[in-house]
Amino acid sequence: MNKNLEKTDRRIGKTQKSIRDALINLLKEKDVSQITIKELAENANINRKTFYMHYSSIDDIFDKIENEIIDKFLLVLDKCDFFNDQFNEYAFFTSLNDVINEDFDFYQKLIHANSYNFLLIKVKKILKDTLVERFYKTLNTNKEVLKLYAEFTASGIMSMYIEWFNLDSNMSLEDLANAASNIAFKGISSIIVN
């Protein structure tokens, strides 16, 4: 790759990260409808012209964030073959952890800003729809019942990660992956002692 192009790509990425971080920081103080582009640009240490080189509006930032996260999430799901005897639940959750670790600070700020509901609803729906689609093709079961299982699983997975972030836990993401794989695929029976 051309060195100038590489520097430009890095600069673009850095500017977009500054804008996203500034937005998340502002969301801790006020509702999204109260945030102006001028205020956002000032907090990102850029001018309005630079902002418009990257985004058309504040909603555009959210759309791009959603799309990036959903694309990464779909890549994790595409690698999973839930019906393979070699399927490794722990590996599934460590793949999710890898996505989080790519921009850990951003996810932490997003969840602590309590402005993530729009995104969680979309990610949960994708997980639920993917589970229903994959299992319905393979299992001979009622689709309505399958949707209930998928809702329970998708909601649980999302809630575990949110709870982990909200607790500012000393538990590592590795330990979370281990617990999550047991909970999601073995249920409460994984901790009940006979």
Provide keyphrases for this structure.
9 helices; 194 residues; Arc Repressor Mutant, subunit A; 2 domains; mainly alpha
Concise structural overview:
The protein is an all-alpha fold. The chain is built from nine helices and no strands. It is elongated and about 55 Å long.
Stretches with pLDDT under 50, minimum 5 residues: none
Query: Which shape, going by the Cα principal axes?
Result: elongated
By secondary-structure content and strand pairing, the structural class works out as mainly alpha
Q: In total, how many beta strands?
A: 0
Sheet-strand content, in percent, reads under 5%
Classify the helix fraction into a percent range.
Answer: over 70%
Count of separate DSSP helical elements: 9
Main sheet attributes: strand count, strand direction, barrel closure: none
Order of helices and strands: HHHHHHHHH
Whole-number tally of structural domains:
2
End-to-end distance, in Å? 60 Å
The quaternary organization reads as single chain
Mean pLDDT equals 82
User: Using only CA atoms, what is the Rg?
Assistant: 19 Å
What does this structure look like?
This protein is mainly alpha-helical. The protein folds into two domains: 55 residues, Homeodomain-like (Arc Repressor Mutant, subunit A); 124 residues. Helix 1 crosses helix 2, helix 4 runs antiparallel to helix 5 and helix 5 packs across helix 9. The termini are far apart.
